[in-house]
Amino acid sequence: MEPQQSDESGEPGDVPAGRVRVFDTTLRDGEQAPGFSLDRKSKLRMAQMLESLGVDVLEAGFPQASPDDFAAVAEIARALQGTTACGLARCVPGDIDAAGRALEKARRSRIHLFLSTSPLHREHKLGKSRAEVLDIAVEAVERSCQRVDEVEFSAEDATRTEWDFLAEVFSAVAKAGASTLNVPDTVGYTTPAEMAGLFRYLRSHVPGSDKLEFSGHCHDDLGMAVANSLAAIGAGARQVECTINGIGERAGNAALEEVVMAMKVRAEYFGVDTRIDTRKLYPASRLLAELTGHAVPRNKAVVGANAFAHESGIHQHGMLKHRGTYEIMRPEDVGFGATQLVLGKHSGRAALRARLVALGHDPDEAALDDIFARFKTLADRKREIHDDDLDALAGGRAAGSRAAKTRAAGVAA
Ligand code: KIV
Ligand code: ZN
């Protein structure tokens, strides 16, 4: 790990050294992905959930994109109690003024400016020279600073930009008043080692970097968004941009729940923390799935249905002896409820016995042999064996509250 940046400026919105600020863009980069749009009521509900989760900055939308986006940003900005409300803007006066107006009622406001810096984008998208890009960026930052509490500048396609030019742009916008310098891996192209190298380079080539906040914003086109975000943090980024469930353009953005839990579970490695209440990660993931109508894949890290489920006999046996054998985080720490030992054709006698006992049965060895043989036959036919199946196999319902006994057994039925 790199030595951590000192942060002694004491300005409002500052975070202590060693803390990573979580910038959530679920309602902007996430919501702009095809099939993920939300109405205003849903956006507000999600924003309130994100605030209770503890995100530091909430990007509520792109005010100039449509009247509805403007209204959603304004409504969220008014509703947030302490979280910084942020609106996206291109480096053009109309966007900046619209973002400023939408954020007027925020307790703390931020305009997030973006402008392409890579040669490919400069030539084919903007048709602008390096010098022109520099001028446009500086002018936009100066205009934004007059409208909100803080300004973030994103160099779009930063990871395909010449490093010296990126440092030049960041130096100029920081001088003009931008306090957060964001490095988007816009097309999900970079690798963790490159990302770390780029952050180290920028921190040593942008004057006053110890007073600036460097930020990473990664897309998942090659499946490296979370790894690249963590590499940025390891190399000194103190803000990370991400979305719940990793929703976002194309393959998505870095998943907030994954980045945050990596920092928490591997705290001794990363040496940083966040102010996220991780027990709200699963509820936030569920709410987003409900509002967008897109289910979370079963095998999704941290919040998928299988994240704390075990079916194989070997794993269940280990789990019954010590949960650390096959779990690196506790389900309750992400608000998941409890570990599930799923009974199916891969399960063994130990898990079957534990579940039978939890259900109030007390088979002796011979009875367990018999139940186990019939259980395996049934499991070959059915994907999962439920409690009613077990009751039937064990010869009827046992007395007592099943739920209470299940809870007492420490694993979910
Ligand atoms: O991916 C990207 O480049 C963006 C910018 C607007 C920051 O989302
Ligand atoms: Zn993006």
Bound molecules: 3-methyl-2-oxobutanoic acid, zinc ion
Succession of helices and strands: EHHEHEHEHHEHEHEHEHHHEHEHHHH
Helix percentage: 40-55%
> What global shape is seen?
elongated
CATH homology superfamily name of the largest domain? Aldolase class I
The top-level CATH class of the largest domain is Alpha Beta
Uncertain parts: 1-13, 397-413
Q: Which features does this protein show?
A:
413 residues; alpha/beta; TIM Barrel; disordered C terminus; binds 3-methyl-2-oxobutanoic acid; binds zinc ion
Description of the molecule:
- The chain is of the alpha/beta class.
- The chain folds into two domains: 12-292, TIM Barrel (Alpha-Beta Barrel), CATH 3.20.20; 309-412, no CATH class.
- It is 44% helix and 12% strand.
- The strands form two sheets. An eight-stranded parallel beta barrel has the order 1-2-3-4-5-6-7-8, surrounded by seven helices. The protein has a two-stranded parallel sheet with strand order 9-10.
- The longest helix has 17 residues, at 365-381.
- The protein is elongated.
- The two termini are 42 Å apart.
- The protein binds 3-methyl-2-oxobutanoic acid and zinc ion (ZN).
- Residues 29, 114, 154, 156, 184, 186, 217, 219 line the site of 3-methyl-2-oxobutanoic acid (KIV).
Short description:
This protein is an alpha/beta fold and 413 residues long. The protein is built from 17 helices and ten strands.
Topology (SSEs and partners):
Blueprint: E1 21-24, H1 26-30, H2 40-53, E2 57-61, H3 67-79, E3 84-90, H4 93-102, E4 109-116, H5 119-126, H6 130-145, E5 150-156, H7 163-176, E6 180-185, H8 192-205, E7 213-218, H9 225-234, E8 239-242, H10 256-265, H11 267-270, H12 281-292, E9 309-310, H13 313-321, E10 340-341, H14 349-358, H15 365-381, H16 387-393, H17 402-408
Parallel strand pairs: 1-2, 1-8, 2-3, 3-4, 4-5, 5-6, 6-7, 7-8, 9-10
Helix pairs in contact: 2-3, 2-12, 3-4, 6-7, 7-8, 8-9, 9-10, 13-14
Bound molecules: 3-methyl-2-oxobutanoic acid (KIV) and zinc ion.
